[in-house]
Design a protein that fits this description.
Number of helices: 4
Number of domains: 1
Distance between the termini: 42 Å
Shape: globular
Strand order of the largest sheet: 8-9-1-13
Structural class: alpha+beta
């Protein structure tokens, strides 16, 4: 039987080789400029669990250093056209965001065990969900108020402030000319009349604090606008292959 193609997803990648500080956030060629205005003091003051925020760049040869407990690794992707699972998505390669957290009493963010330590010893790089060996890492380190690492709201606010920072980069990435991409992939949700019906069941984390999963956020692999699987009662959710490819699931741990 001939398959019918529907819901085309096009992902255009822009490779980054340098990340440097700047007055304004922008992308030029293979360089990502991080603006000094990327932090938002108003947002930090509104988030009652967030006490302090620190941003640094970690180069591939600088991973033998101590970091606080790793909350998440986050790819930088944005929707340019269409909704999740279709249309056009821009993504950056060569750079990832790492979110870490601790509270003012030096209690590390953790659920079943914290992951603070020497970065090169705590992470297996080059696997699904982790940066590649040669990737640059934008490290977002959040200090929460006392007790903030042990409550779900505190961890959520870590993700919220980090998502705001990433959105500053997404807004620039969104405006890049797609013709300048360094790589392009196209995916289709295929329908095969008369073919076998295949469903893949994936059990995701849904307990609380760091052990949570967010789905269908506004941006691919984002936080804002998404729904926690906990708030959905840990009930089954139907996701198409292209929605999965496009970052509909955000594993927050």
């Amino acid at each position: 039987m001939k398959s019918l193609k529907r819901r085309k997803l096009q992902i255009k990648a822009f490779h980054i080789e340098r990340v440097v500080s700047s007055e304004t956030t922008l992308i030029s060629g293979n360089t990502l400029f991080l603006g000094t205005d990327i932090k938002n003091p108003e947002l930090i003051s509104r988030l009652k669990y967030v006490k302090e925020l620190r941003i640094e760049l970690i180069k591939p040869n600088e991973r033998d250093k101590f970091v606080n407990s790793i909350v998440d690794f986050i790819p930088i992707s944005t929707k340019v056209l269409g909704k999740m699972g279709e249309g056009i998505t821009h993504t950056l390669t060569g750079v990832n965001v790492m979110l870490t957290a601790i509270d003012e009493d030096n209690i590390q963010a953790a659920e079943f065990g914290s992951s603070e330590g020497v970065l090169s010893e705590q992470v297996v790089f080059g696997r699904a969900g982790t940066p590649r060996e040669e990737d640059l890492i934008i490290h977002v380190d959040v200090t929460l108020v006392s007790g903030g690492t042990k409550v779900r709201s505190g961890i959520d606010q870590c993700h919220e402030i980090c998502d705001y920072l990433v959105q500053q980069i997404r807004d620039v990435l969104k405006k890049l000319n797609g013709r300048d991409c360094t790589d392009k992939c196209e995916f289709f949700d295929n329908i095969r009349p008369g073919g076998k019906k295949v469903v893949i069941l994936k059990q995701v984390a849904g307990q609380g604090a760091m052990y949570d999963t967010r789905i269908f956020s506004t941006e691919p692999s984002g936080f804002t606008g998404g729904k926690s699987i906990i708030d959905l009662g840990n009930m089954p959710v139907l996701i198409t292959p292209n929605e999965y490819r496009d970052g509909a699931i955000r594993a927050m741990h």
